[in-house]
Design goal:
By secondary structure, this protein is α/β, with parallel strands linked by helices. It contains ten helices and 13 strands. Strand 12, helix 9 (265-271) and strand 13 (278-287) form a beta-alpha-beta unit.
């Protein structure tokens, strides 16, 4: 049932049917109230300087937009960055250090899939999950990090930061609950808009490819993968941040006759411990030099 609801909501926000469009119009008064509350929250916030440069990568809408690969690509340019995120889907609560100078210090159930992906891919970074970003930023500062990168931080208006906002195409331009927008680009809020093919390009390849692969993924709006997929025998979509069981994955292999499961990097960190045949849909971003320099200049200016 949860999966059905999740995919219905994703369709409602990004590919609405006629009935869903009527529902969206019906809910529009609630969207006006929601937007007003979000605007009041923004205008009543005072950004705080934490004494360490903070760079936020976010988006205005609910659902996936490619924040994780963008943060990863930016962090490569720094010697000791920190990555701070909420840790959606984790079983833990509060502040948890996922990776410190000694290595990875918790498992994926405690960190969540996105944080563990960062921890695996960026061994030079400090990775922290916390519902309270303020506490996590101070923790990163205590580690001696040169900059903090917030994954999904646009709405954290009490934090002084450089805001990078990833553009997401949707035919539904309303705020919640009529549409997918959590926030607007508020007047006076300075941001850098980041768009594919202008700010970055995607580089996708398959590692350990087999002749018969079944796609298995638990990311938001999984149809985003279609443009990069090789031929697969079937596709299996789970709700975002779903924690797979070995039994459900083995059942997919048996049902489809696939020689391997084709998974994203975000899925891989949860599936790898099962020792099943896996093909990896690996994604890297090639960043525009101007974007990299803008971020570096901001970090160096704040440090000085």
């Amino acid at each position: 049932m949860k999966r059905v609801i999740t995919f219905w909501v994703e369709g409602y926000f990004y590919h609405p049917t006629t009935a869903q469009q009527f529902l969206s119009i019906f809910l529009y008064p609630l969207s006006l109230i929601y937007c007003l509350i979000a605007w009041i929250r923004y205008t009543s916030s005072t950004p705080r300087d934490f004494g360490i440069p903070v760079v936020s990568v976010g988006n205005l809408t609910v659902g996936g937009s490619g924040k994780t690969p963008l943060v990863s690509a930016l962090c490569v340019s720094f010697k000791k960055p920190a990555i701070v995120l909420r840790g959606y889907g984790r079983e833990s609560h509060g502040l948890v250090v996922v990776r410190d100078e000694s290595g990875i210090v918790c498992d994926v159930s405690q960190s969540g899939d996105e944080a563990m992906l960062y921890a695996h891919n960026l061994p030079h970074a400090i990775v922290i999950v916390s519902e309270k970003r303020d506490a996590a930023i101070m923790m990163a500062k205590s580690f001696g990090c040169e900059a903090v990168f917030l994954d999904d931080g646009y709405g954290k208006h009490t934090i002084q930061k450089l805001d990078l906002v990833i553009g997401v195409d949707t035919p539904n331009s309303f705020c919640l609950p009529s549409g997918p927008y959590r926030e607007r680009l508020w007047n006076g809020k300075k941001v850098i808009m980041v768009d594919e093919n202008r700010s970055f390009t995607r580089k996708v390849h398959v590692e350990n490819a087999t002749a018969k692969m079944a796609l298995v993924t638990a990311i938001a709006r999984p149809q985003r993968l279609d443009a990069y997929l090789p031929e697969v025998v079937d596709k299996f979509y789970f709700e975002d941040h779903h924690f797979f069981t070995q039994a459900e994955l083995v059942a997919i292999l048996e049902r489809t006759g696939a020689m391997s499961l084709l998974v994203t990097q975000k899925d891989f960190v949860k599936i790898a411990p099962f020792n099943l045949p896996i093909s990896l849909l690996a994604l890297d971003l090639e960043l525009n030099r101007e974007l990299i320099e803008t971020v570096r200049e901001y970090v160096h200016a704040k440090k000085d």
